[in-house]
Amino acid sequence: MENAITTEYDYSKENRGVFFLIDSKSFYASVENVERGFNPLKGDLVVMSEQANTNGGLVLAASPTAKKDLGISNVMRQRDLPDVHGLFIAHPRMNNYIAENLKINNIYRQYTDDINLLPYSIDESILDVTHSWRLFGKTPEEVAFKIQKQVRAETGVYLTVGIGDTPVLAKIALDIEAKHTRNLMGVWHYEDVPTKLWPITKLDDVWSIGSRTAHKLEVMGIHSMYDLAHQDPYQYRAKMGLVGEQLFALSWGIDRTDMAEVVVPKSKSYSNSQVLPRDYKRKEEIEIVVREMADQVATRIRSHKKQTCLVSLFIGYSFAESERQGSHGFRKQQRIDPTNDTRKLMAIMVALFERHWHGEVIRNIGIDYGGLIEDTGVQLDLFEQPEKSIKFNKIDQVVDEIRKRFGTTALMRAMSKEKGGTAINRASLVGGHNGGNSYE
């Protein structure tokens, strides 16, 4: 192979910690199985989206046996499910999953502190137990088993654990090994890299390598993780920039992440988007949804004591319209005077829509409020009486308080009862699925 090198990493100069990457196995399906008294690993169950905009529903999660024995995969449509006796279909209850996730992470906190715990997603967390594992067992594997056992006893959920000298080794150990072992555990040290990581030839099986990156590497003559580790790293930097450097480090299991320095970024904008339950053609119906969403995001920025100076509207066309137009839709921005006034923001977003919509059939709408500044009080309008601005600000505050105390549907705008409105049906959704408050 051209440019092949024999570079070796001196691991003595790298930090060697003890990291657990823990995954709640088939999490949504497990929670539903447990609540019905089924074994999470053996009950044939799928969690199925119930929204009309998915044309019959999509599989969000499937139990291990449903995947293995029935061939069910995530995002399979309801119409494609096998017609077999004993397959249980559950609707998503996102608040339940969030509550169980919090319960599980609180168990993790018994084994490490908050600085060394990073919830990675709703079903995965990273634990740095480098300085604490000896308090709970003779080996890291013993501690991991205790965590598995405790979570199983308190929640019924099975855990899969990747253990590594670095976070990235723990993640790869989880994905490549732990999910296929009897004890649902995989252990990867630096010394295992040549025998466990380098033989991998399906590059996009490895965490952080997507199909497009894998294809780019194939074009460069990289056909395995061994190849990736034994090419000149400067070649990667020249062709792929920083990503190339990171890939080379990945091939050697190097990850210098300091958990204590991982910062959850503060939101620079607040947004909401939705796939409409059907194609929308009438201007009046589309504007109802635009107003509803403008109201919802305005509520969010007020709850975070912010005002917006930059608004953005996305309109996505229906499939047939996209084919006709040769475009998926449009996205438009507008700078505005700082505000979090629902009345003003609804008017601005509707006006933005009217300027750029020319009768196309649409299926997606998205609204984003950026350019956020601290809410320091009512921004008075030269073209409006101060008393009127203050009055509407107080109305917004009262509406926010009522919704906070009694739920978002306790006080809805009359337009949401009209044909085309979606706010009432969406008020109880979390992440687009049943089970939460979309105004939070």
Automatic annotation (TrEMBL):
Listed Pfam families: IMS (PF00817), IMS_C (PF11799), IMS_HHH (PF11798)
An annotated GO BP: SOS response
Record-linked CDD domains: PolY_Pol_V_umuC
Keywords on record: DNA replication, DNA-directed DNA polymerase, Mutator protein, Nucleotidyltransferase, Transferase
A Gene Ontology term for the protein's cellular component: cytosol
Molecular-function annotations in GO: damaged DNA binding; DNA-directed DNA polymerase activity
PROSITE patterns linked to this entry: UMUC (PS50173)
Domain UmuC: 19-210
Membership in a protein family: Belongs to the DNA polymerase type-Y family.
Protein name as it appears in the record: Nucleotidyltransferase/DNA polymerase for DNA repair
